């Protein structure tokens, strides 16, 4: 008979959890580190349950075990852990390809925000900030103030912009500048502390989440029949565009293409931009909502999408004429249980350069200048589901300023 391990006291559990995290931070003995955190989780320590859940979800010390990960996160959330609630909210919104459950996401977000969780407060702020309604705007600014006050650097950067432009609040350039200076020097700025209760009701948040996931109305059908080339304007709020840039900027690197023969990474003149890929596991409500909206615009589930890619073009940089569908050697067909071809591409335009950078389709005689906040959808396959060579397209060289976009390549079948 196996002897059961002796029960852990809460103090011992906390010590095991901290020890496990420290070992991860030092990059030593991940299996032992995981075992320590698992022991603390088993003893009922909520923070350890949350971290174990996230480690299993990410597959950090072994292969990913998403179901077990979710179960541990649920236990931590039940015990009141705000960060676990926030992680579950991003999952409920469908970051990993589940059908979105906005009511559940709103409930979890409200709870996490009520406990002062910075990213939850920021997520609510960005969602409510999409609305022109004055009450929603006021709630939104309060949440952003609270996120910034709780030390969230992205919330602080968004708040600077809001104060500067007077979006959702009175413009206050002095305070915006003081805050920007304080952030640049890393000193603590005078900010409002996080709230002791939820800053907006669950019902209000659920309503705004619902509309944030809905497909934007098509404004122009530049090619109405297959392959569709459709445009929606004002599909992203300026704050959402800024959020994507802030989240991805630290991870930008020189774009590369893949050699179709060898699969090797090539820094080719085809694509001279910088890019960053958003791992679907990144926990951010605004990031999930934008991706859901992009997928909905294409009429395909987000679960079929590859990771969203952020692209930045500086003067002289371009994406020369290319097609987005993959060489047949890199496609596992649907019938073989794979995700199939890249059925559609959705591009979200985040920032316009001062000159240049239009997206063009030479064979369809289409030219789309960059309009921040717009989304472009095009099919890559013909009506029979085969690659359509007429989808040849390019990002023209940027002449002045910077062009930022985010591209979602969506497969025929489940990818996430
Ligand atoms: O930047 C552009 O205008 C086009 C981008 C593009 O073609 C892509 O990301 O696949
Ligand atoms: Fe492309």
TrEMBL record:
Cofactor(s) required for function per UniProt: L-ascorbate
Keyword Iron part of the UniProt annotation: yes
InterPro entries: Oxoglu/Fe-dep_dioxygenase_dom, P4HA-like, Pro_4_hyd_alph, Pro_4_hyd_alph_FE2OG_OXY, Sel1-like, TPR-like_helical_dom_sf
Database matches in Pfam families: 2OG-FeII_Oxy_3
Any one Gene Ontology molecular-function term assigned to this protein's record: dioxygenase activity
Swiss-Prot/TrEMBL keywords: Dioxygenase, Endoplasmic reticulum, Glycoprotein, Iron, Metal-binding, Oxidoreductase, Vitamin C
Domain called Fe2OG dioxygenase: residue spans: 304-412
Keyword Iron: yes
Family annotation (SMART domains): P4Hc, SEL1
Name the UniProt record assigns to this protein: 2OG-Fe(II) oxygenase
Gene source species: Coralloluteibacterium stylophorae
Top-level taxonomy: Bacteria, Pseudomonadati, Pseudomonadota, Gammaproteobacteria, Lysobacterales
């Amino acid at each position: 008979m196996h002897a059961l391990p002796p029960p852990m006291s809460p103090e011992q559990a906390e010590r095991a959890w901290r020890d496990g995290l420290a070992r991860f931070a030092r990059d030593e003995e991940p299996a032992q580190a995981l075992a320590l955190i698992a022991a603390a989780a088993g003893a009922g320590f909520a923070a350890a349950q949350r971290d174990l859940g996230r480690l299993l979800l990410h597959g950090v010390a072994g292969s990913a075990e998403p179901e077990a990960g979710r179960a541990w996160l649920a236990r931590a959330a039940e015990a009141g852990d705000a960060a676990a609630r926030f992680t579950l909210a991003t999952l409920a919104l469908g970051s990993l390809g589940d059908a979105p459950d906005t009511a559940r996401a709103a409930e979890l977000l409200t709870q996490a925000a009520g406990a002062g969780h910075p990213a939850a407060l920021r997520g609510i702020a960005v969602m409510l900030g999409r609305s022109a309604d004055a009450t929603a705007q006021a709630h939104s600014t309060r949440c952003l103030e609270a996120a910034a006050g709780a030390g969230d650097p992205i919330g602080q950067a968004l708040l600077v912009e809001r104060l500067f432009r007077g979006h959702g609040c009175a413009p206050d350039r002095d305070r915006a500048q003081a805050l920007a200076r304080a952030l640049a020097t890393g000193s603590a700025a005078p900010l409002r502390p996080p709230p002791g209760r939820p800053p907006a009701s669950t019902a209000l948040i659920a309503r705004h989440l619902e509309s944030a996931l809905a497909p934007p109305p098509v404004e122009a059908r530049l090619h109405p029949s297959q392959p569709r080339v459709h445009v929606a304007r004002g599909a992203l709020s300026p704050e959402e565009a800024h959020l994507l840039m802030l989240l991805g900027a630290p991870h930008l690197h020189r774009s590369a293409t893949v050699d179709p023969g060898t699969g090797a990474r090539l820094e080719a003149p085809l694509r001279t931009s910088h890019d960053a890929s958003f791992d679907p596991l990144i926990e951010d409500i605004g990031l999930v909502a934008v991706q859901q909206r992009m997928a909905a615009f294409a009429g395909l589930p987000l679960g079929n999408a590859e990771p969203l890619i952020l692209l930045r073009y500086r003067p002289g940089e371009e994406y020369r004429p290319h097609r987005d569908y993959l060489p047949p050697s890199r496609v596992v067909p649907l019938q073989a249980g794979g995700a199939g071809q890249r059925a559609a591409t959705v591009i979200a335009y985040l920032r316009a350069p001062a000159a240049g950078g239009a997206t063009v389709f030479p064979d369809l005689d289409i030219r789309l200048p960059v309009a921040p906040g717009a989304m472009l959808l095009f099919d890559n396959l013909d009506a029979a589901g085969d690659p359509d060579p007429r989808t040849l397209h390019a990002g023209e060289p940027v002449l002045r300023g910077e062009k930022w976009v985010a591209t979602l390549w969506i497969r025929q079948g489940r990818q996430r």
